[in-house]
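Continuing the series of single-chain predictions for the mutant panel. This is the parent chain; the variants come on the following pages.
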Amino acid sequence: MITVISPAKTLDYDSPVNVTEYTLPALLNHSQTLIKSCKELTPQSIADLMKISSKLADLNYQRFQNWQADFNLENARQAIFAFKGDVYEGLQAYDFNQNNINFAQHHLRMLSGLYGLLRPLDLIQPYRLEMGIKLKNGNNDNLYQFWGDTVTEQLNQQLAQQNSHTLINLASNEYFKAVNQKKLNADIISPVFLDESKGKYKIISFYAKRARGLMSRYIIKNQLNEAVDLQSFDLAGYQFDKRQSSSNEWVFSRSEKQASLHKHN
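Parent structure:
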């Protein structure tokens, strides 16, 4: 069973990391092709393309210029520790033990606009390149066209190596669109997290992102290999809602009372 999550815009290259083992992204040659296009962008074109401030545009201009093919622990960091956002706050990878890290390395994948598909210990250099950005590259008008079926083929290879036919989709729609579901050799289960607000249950982005990280953590900590075991997920007060779930969309809901009890989780 493989779980996929999104990356994060915010990065952390400052917090101490005790893990020295690392791997290299499998699709680095593709990343190098993209970087060539990114290095041609001016700060202003980056600001326009990404719809970000001039300050952030300058930062990412420098990141693109500094990016180099030689990856090491001096200029890069393992992806699971480099990303910092709501999903990763739920994941809490900094307290993983060696068994957790080993399991995550085999079963957790991060989709990425620049790197395609990442394992937790894959080194990445600082970047910002969201999958939905319309970056022209060769004959491609955007990153979905650039990656084509490459990410899907990678996932199929890794599922085959595990002799598994299950993929847990905890990524955002923007990123999971990079996966060709028709060509993916797996049953896809997409958990949905609903929170009660004023008596009605709906997706609240901040909580849903955190819950995706929490569920990834639950899978890793409990070394789950069967999708059905996910229905026991109960972190932060969420409960599996069989009535609202379908065969490939599993709903987990949380009342306002439960959210209040777990607001610091």
